[in-house]
Here is the input.
Amino acid sequence: MINFPRADEITEAYQDQVEALERLFRARASLRTDHTSRFHRFSDADIQDRLEQDRRELDLWTVMMLTASFEATMRADARDRIDSRTKDALRKPLRDLYEEHQDRVRLDDLLAMWEGHAAVGPTMKQNVHTLLKHRHWLAHGRHWTNKHGAMPSPLDARAQLDDYAQALQATIPDFPRG
Amino acid sequence: MTMHDLIEKLKERPATATSEQLAVQKQEWLNAIKRLFEDIERWIEPAVSEGVLRTSRVETELIEQDLGSYMAPSLHITDGRLTVRIEPVGAAVVSVFAGGKRHVGLRGSVNLVCGPTKIPLARTQSGTWKAFPMRGEARDVTEESFAEILGEVLLDD
Here is the structure.
């Protein structure tokens, strides 16, 4: 059972928050004069800078959440597949992987195992592996230059992760389990 | 891994372009951005003449996996209160998810940014540009649609 928010919940919340930020930006004239507002007496340029920074962070956080949700999905599926003793081609190699590494199975190893069984196109693989590198950069403090190209928008990241999941489903129809 | 497995894995790797091909691709991309900015500057020239808008260009560094690090122009448009920036995202952008659907077959994208508003403007296969707002329909980038977009981001309620 996954406790982590699913991708559709994350993107729904993301789009709500983007719309809220954009509507806040359009209401800047009233914000400036409202003494209860956090933006009281801000200039237009100050409000622009603040809300732009908010949007930038929101986008980064959402990509991080989406990739974390993807990892939760992959791990929950593997656990459930092993525990339920499914009859598909993945269960045994997954079980062997978990027996070898206990609870310290690397996500890269899980993906490699799936990619060895499912027809995942090279572009899909590259997109997801690049996203995971972005996630690594985000989750570890962004203290080095990220050279993996432009970070996709959250909605594009979601689409890339969906492509990958659909490729897995094409081979193992009951993916994701758990 | 057997030799057969290795051969299959080597075959399925994405084809790599030569450095000459990448240089051509980069130059074509930079030329496309330049033409877009020239179009926009021409469209808003009357507003610049009236003194209500000003434009400037700045060079920014882009890092792309295939093209590496390079300098590309950004276009800034200001009304004296706010600044709209049109910033290159990358030549490698081939799809954009917006308006509840996925738009594919694209050939590079820039973002129009003003405060929390970020609208991808992406180059289509025919070389035209389309705006992909998160809500609403995608639209061709024309003088009229660009004026509408500027109005949406520069004017408050």
Remarks:
- Chain B has a mean pLDDT of 93.
- Chain B has four helices and nine strands.
